[in-house]
Specification:
The structure holds 2 protein chains of 2 kinds. Chain A has helices at residues 10-16, 20-26, 38-45, 49-60, 67-70, 75-107, 112-153, 164-192, 199-239. By secondary structure, chain A is mostly helical. Helix content of chain A is 75%, strand content 0%. Chain A is built from 9 helices and no strands. Chain B is an alpha/beta fold. Chain B has 2 domains: 5-110, Response regulator (Rossmann fold); 116-186, Arc Repressor Mutant, subunit A (Orthogonal Bundle). Chain B has helices at 14-27, 54-59, 61-64, 96-110, 113-118, 123-133, 138-145, 149-163, 168-177, and strands spanning 5-10, 31-36, 49-53, 71-75, 88-91. In chain B, α6 crosses α8 and α7 packs across α8 (149-163). Classes of the chains: A mainly alpha, B alpha/beta.
Chain lengths: 243, 187
């Protein structure tokens, strides 16, 4: 798959990687954009085309790292994107998986008690994921906004928010744990849940978990390769500021 | 195993037989449930599950030990704590929900895949896994099994490698699904 450019037609990008559909939706772009290129679609929807392109490429190319563009993205644009991703997990993807599980339980004969065990695990996962998202929204994101605001006002260094590096280490660990749980869930559904449950729903649920897993992985890469370096750069600007 | 299960109900009590058949037909659906007043020893081999009245059980006890299918004894009294006398006891005078719950329990105990899957773990690893699933910490596991902390950690590492399950909750889920611990034990 080639790197997408401003002149790639958006439909071609999606044909190349259909996992981009929800990503495109998160930018407020519905399907039905005809032959428009990425540049044209971004103009219509007033989206920063460089940022949009970087996101599409991060999602489609594991090795892609948007170095040059990195230094110019507006942190608030990045935040708004990350926030929409969170909302997508919370309001769409998790409820979809939960619904599949519920249907499976409703239709189950003798596999029911096994599915109740799976549900218990899933609810635990869901709680941890939501807590993690919430913490990012109430701790990390406000910190980013503060750094951004200070940077714009060119305040002196002792106004800096504290401990981003410190808290980032904690987040990373938490990320790992949340990811591992999702892996376990997938693995159990594939290997250890007996074959006595509805196969169609079970497959659909596994697909959905694979997708969620991939999406979260790319989301994390965006936080690490786009947001964090950008904030570190602003922090340095504040540190060596006007004084 | 699930679809097309062949089930035998042997009881002289016609009403119990018919009632149970209707429950089992929907539980094992689609299933062939055969009700008979007397057991034909030669034909036992074709059934996946055998339900018997206490009388029938006592009469053909000897033949039954040779069959592979789970044997479930039907009782009008609640003999569920009397498990040393009968392998699996189903109390017939309870609501349908209770019967289904008991069937689920039997299913766990008699599921043939348990041995196949669990055999990938050593018996010591299974002991450790059971305790992990019950939420015990390594130190306590070491004490209970009289092994060193280091050994516990190495068992846990092997369990995770063999099963590909990384979290404690994941291991717990595995243990419950395989009937190594009951879901009541995990709080």
């Amino acid at each position: 798959m080639q790197l997408f450019t401003r002149d790639t037609r958006l439909a071609d990008a999606i044909h190349a990687n259909y996992l981009l559909i929800p990503v495109v939706n998160r930018f407020g772009i519905p399907l039905g954009f005809g032959e428009r290129t990425i540049r044209e679609v971004c103009r219509v929807h007033r989206i920063d085309v460089a940022f949009f392109l970087a996101i599409l490429n991060v999602f489609s190319h594991p090795a892609y790292f948007p170095e040059k563009a990195l230094l110019t993205f507006d942190p608030l644009t990045i935040l708004s994107y990350l926030q929409k991703t969170h909302a997508y997990y919370r309001d769409v993807q998790i409820p979809v998986i939960e619904r599949q599980l519920r249907q499976m339980i409703r239709r189950a004969g003798k596999g029911k008690s096994d599915l109740l065990v799976v549900r218990r695990f899933f609810l635990e996962y869901k709680k941890e994921l939501l807590a993690h998202l919430h913490r990012e929204e109430t701790v990390t994101f406000p910190y980013v906004r503060t750094v951004h605001r200070l940077h714009q006002r060119r305040r002196s260094s002792h106004h800096r928010g504290k401990g981003l590096t410190y808290s980032m280490a904690a987040y990373e660990k938490e990320h790992n744990n949340v990811d591992e749980k999702l892996w376990d869930l997938k693995n159990i559904l594939i290997k250890y849940l007996p074959g006595s449950v509805d196969a169609v729903l079970r497959n659909a649920m596994i697909y959905e978990i694979f997708r969620l897993e991939q999406d979260i992985r790319d989301h994390t890469r965006i936080e690490e390769t786009i947001l964090m370096p950008r904030i570190a750069q602003l922090e340095r600007g504040l540190g060596s500021g006007t004084r | 195993m699930l679809h097309g299960s062949k089930v035998l109900i042997a009881t002289a009590d016609r009403l119990t037989g018919i009632g149970l058949r209707s429950v089992l037909e929907s539980y094992f659906a689609p299933a062939a449930v055969h009700v008979t007043p007397a057991v034909d020893a030669d034909r036992l081999g074709r059934y996946d599950y055998i339900f018997l009245s206490v009388d029938a059980y006592l009469r053909c006890h000897g033949v039954l030990t040779a069959t592979k299918a789970p044997i479930i004894v039907l009782s009008q009294d609640d003999l569920r704590n009397d498990t040393h006398r009968y392998p699996l006891v189903l109390w017939t005078r309870q609501e349908e929900a209770g019967i289904i719950e008991d069937l689920e329990r039997f299913q766990k105990r008699s599921r043939p895949s348990v041995h196949v899957q669990a055999s990938t773990l050593s018996s010591r690893e299974i002991e450790v896994l059971k305790l992990v699933a019950k939420g015990e910490i390594n130190k306590h596991i070491a004490d209970v099994l009289s092994i060193s902390l280091h050994t516990v950690i190495s068992h846990r590492k092997n369990i995770t490698t063999k099963l590909g399950i990384k979290t404690v909750s994941g291991l717990t889920m595995y243990a419950v699904l395989n009937g190594l611990v009951s879901s009541k034990d995990i709080g």
